[in-house]
């Protein structure tokens, strides 16, 4: 390729990038107000104990019900929140909403843990455990029904600070799970040093484990690793009964995926919970 052609391509991309950047900038600017005026929503996806198909928890996944753009998914605004300083407010909103919903279920006799995703920046904030403690004490929600999903990169990028926060959370009784496990570079030593309870095998390995031999090997290896370190394992991305069966056979503890249910709002979740349409396959 010629330099001239590269230059042209560069210019074309810059114009598109500019529009894209303006759009992102606007969303980022709107976000603080959106959080205040309750435009965020939580959708819940069931987490199922595989040995007896008991629904034991939910992952709370945030959406933004944007007045003009409709429902936005987290990949389109979480990075903006992280870069524009809104992630703290967003996380607080999500945690509060998830804990309150968990408390409502509990008061109706439905004991489910709620699992919340935590960005790296939050994990490096030494006052975060305090924020969590306050939310728990205000609602009376049991700490051991709260699970926080952190990523490997959040640990690696600042091991000292992340460890302190994880240790405080663990001491409070909050569960800690490593999300997207296998996609990062967690030294196995950290897994042993940190009081982590669980790993979540990333869906990119699970989705094709029945067709791609390498993926099956990775899933099996991660399950072995977790067992040897006495960690519980969640597999995300279970899209069909074959994946369910394979993972169950391999002794995976908890399953999550479209086969059981997509993430849905609280009303749809209640209905799903009482009907459990997926159980009809068994
Ligand atoms: P994640 O924590 O790894 O969540 C799993 C994602 O996989 C969710 O996407 C979920 O809808 C999707 N998923 C679940 N089962 C299946 C399946 O069987 N097949 C396929 N193809 N996908 C499945 P979602 O809701 O779009 O969330 C994307 C990511 O956004 C999450 O990935 C998480 O990293 C982040 N996120 C979501 N909510 C929050 C939040 O409140 N705070 C922060 N910091 N991040 C969040
Ligand atoms: Mg997650
Ligand atoms: Mg995940
Ligand atoms: Mg993931």
From TrEMBL:
<feature type="domain" description="EAL">
    <location>
        <begin position="24"/>
        <end position="277"/>
    </location>
</feature>
<protein>
    <submittedName>
        <fullName>Bifunctional diguanylate cyclase/phosphodiesterase</fullName>
    </submittedName>
</protein>
């Amino acid at each position: 390729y010629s330099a001239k052609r590269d230059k042209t391509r560069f210019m074309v991309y810059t114009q598109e990038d500019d529009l894209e950047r303006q759009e992102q900038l606007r969303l980022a600017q709107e976000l603080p107000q959106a959080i205040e005026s309750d435009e965020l929503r939580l959708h819940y996806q069931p987490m199922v104990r595989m040995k007896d198909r008991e629904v034991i928890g939910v992952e709370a996944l945030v959406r933004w019900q944007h007045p003009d753009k409709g429902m936005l998914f987290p990949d389109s605004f979480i990075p903006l929140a992280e870069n524009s300083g809104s992630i703290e407010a967003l996380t607080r909103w999500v945690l509060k909403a998830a804990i309150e919903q968990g408390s409502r279920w509990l008061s109706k006799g439905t004991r489910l843990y709620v699992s919340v995703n935590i960005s790296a920046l939050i994990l490096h904030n030494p006052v975060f455990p305090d924020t969590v403690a306050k939310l728990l004490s205000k609602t009376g929600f049991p700490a051991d029904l709260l699970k926080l999903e952190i990523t490997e990169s959040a640990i690696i990028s600042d091991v000292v600070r992340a460890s302190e926060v994880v240790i405080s959370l663990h001491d409070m009784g909050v569960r800690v799970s490593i999300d997207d496990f296998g996609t990062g570079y967690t030294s196995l030593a950290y897994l042993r040093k940190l009081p982590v309870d669980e790993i979540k095998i990333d869906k990119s390995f699970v989705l094709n484990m029945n067709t791609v031999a390498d993926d099956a090997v990775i899933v099996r290896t991660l399950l072995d690793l977790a067992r040897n370190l006495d960690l519980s394992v969640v597999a995300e991305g279970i899209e069909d009964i074959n994946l369910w069966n394979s993972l169950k056979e391999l002794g995976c503890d908890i399953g999550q995926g479209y086969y059981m249910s997509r993430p849905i709002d609280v009303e749809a979740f209640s209905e799903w919970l009482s009907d459990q349409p997926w159980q009809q396959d068994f």
